Fold this protein.
Amino acid sequence: MSMIESAPTASRGGRPSREEAARLGERILDAAMELMLEQGYGATSIEAVAARAGVSKRTFYHRFADKATLVQAVVARVVERARPPLAPRPAQPGTVPEAAGVEALRRSLHEFGTHTLRAALSPQVLALYRLIVGESHRFPDLLRAVALSGGRAQAVRTLVDTMRRHLPDLAPAQAEFAAQQFLQMLVSLPQLRAMGIGDAMSESDCDLWVTQTVDLLLQGIG
């Protein structure tokens, strides 16, 4: 098979269908993610991505304007796959409405925190974190891509909504400050330990970490 292009089967008029075009875009993103996480952002060229994906440069540029656009799509994809549930589950018919108060909030925060920490310690997210730490000082496109992904901002909004749903008297500014601190406490040290700065946490360590972080947050907001 040629490495220049293994084109999808053409639909009417010789152009790929929408589904085929989407699969081709996914293939390019797969190749880009593999190369960036293996070799680093600076060492990954558009030519190498096209070759790994089995497409021509013309096909690549038809989907991504440049390398900055490509890395934004790669980061957005990693963030989206790691994203915790971001909305309360709709109540099922016949169920009791969600209770307000500290204990109900504790359960919601624990569920959110458990999912978030697992995602933050996943191999792909850790690899992306290493990439950003190692190369963002030379390539601002990496930090821009993280900002544009909106992952942290979305998580903060979800936490604010969750806290104020259970504790309606909690001021919006206090809820936002608490949400920012909760995410920092929850993820920062476990990620550093997973990267080799100390011993990596076991699953039971992570469960305890989530529980204690939630307890500390609830103590802080009274």
